[in-house]
Amino acid sequence: MPLPQIPLLNVRAQTAxxxxxxxxxxxxxxxxxxxxxxxxxxxxxxxIAEYCGTKFAIACASGTDAILLPxxxxxxxxxxxxxxxxxxxxxxxxxxxxxxxxxxxxxIEYGTFNLDPVLLGRYLESLPPADLATVKAIIPVHLxxxxxxxxxxxxxxxxxxxxVIEDAAQAIGSEFSGARAGSMGWCGTLSFFPSKNLGGxxxxxxxxxxxxxxxxxxxxxxxxxxxxxxxxxxxxxxxxLDTLQAAVLLAKLPHLEGWAxxxxxxxxxxxxxxxxxxxxGALTAPIALPDATHxxxxxxxxxxxxxxxxxxxxxxxxxxxxxxxxxxxxxxCFEPLGYRxxxxxxxxxxxxxxxxxxxxxxxxxxSIETVVERLAVVxxxxx
Length: 383
Ligand SMILES: *Cc1c(COP(=O)(O)O)cnc(C)c1O
Hints:
By secondary structure, the chain is of the alpha/beta class.
């Protein structure tokens, strides 16, 4: 008999658990027929702003656009630099390039996988004044569900008067020193991609901010720069969140807190099982900072012979994933930027060692125990 399959993600089970609420939300949108910027969009913006602890939230078409639009609001273009970590999902740097500006990479911390404030400070201090003037934004990423060290990053950014855009796509609800992801920088960006902690039934995104002028500007940019219909003050784009997505997300939002707790319980179950079932030093568990609340969009370990471990786990019907196998400075499309292997050693080591294990809230501690039992077999076979 095959071993029971343990998936990385179980969107169907999550949908099933609240199916009636989702069906009703969809039916209401079908009935009122305001498919573009209907009432649910504004309601969701208000709820998300409240949840993240910001004055404003502006919905858009994806987490990618949530990064792109504030960069557009800064009028970023050719000749400008934007600091990003090289260890993140592609969108963080891709948005910078799409506007003709240059992503500049600064390495991450070994423990948290997040932008290293010390290296950020060192990089900015090393720039001649003319180059420093071209650095128009810093985008720390709250990778895997834990906030980057925002107090330290804000201190450095403030010293150089550079706006900070928090890429909080993976970290809705996580906190650093009591402040929520998305509320600490000039603005924060969220994704509602189905695998995120708050996932829609398709694409979606949101920008959070306390800046009223950014709020107003983003509301224009997402509708082709048009205040009054067919009158365009500037060139924007079409980037709205569908009313249907907003309605589904409104139905899901009240459950988000409970899902985060389940993720945290799963993480605790992993740590407990590691200590019981694995030899000391078999792998490195993710670090949860005392100052931060980790919401575990991913539970990402470091392990030797990572690819082999992943292959053998798959043979034992345990899904896992590598976020991310190739650092951004080594991507083909960024070759013209002139970076080389060895430029960001912490990132490059992470890319070789990371493995994300199943932590979906639909999985209970029993499944986690099973994952670690099978992982123990795999590690033993490789020892
Ligand atoms: C998912 C993600 C994005 C982009 O979100 P989409 O909604 O897929 O466009 C951006 N940054 C990070 C770190 C992400 O994980």
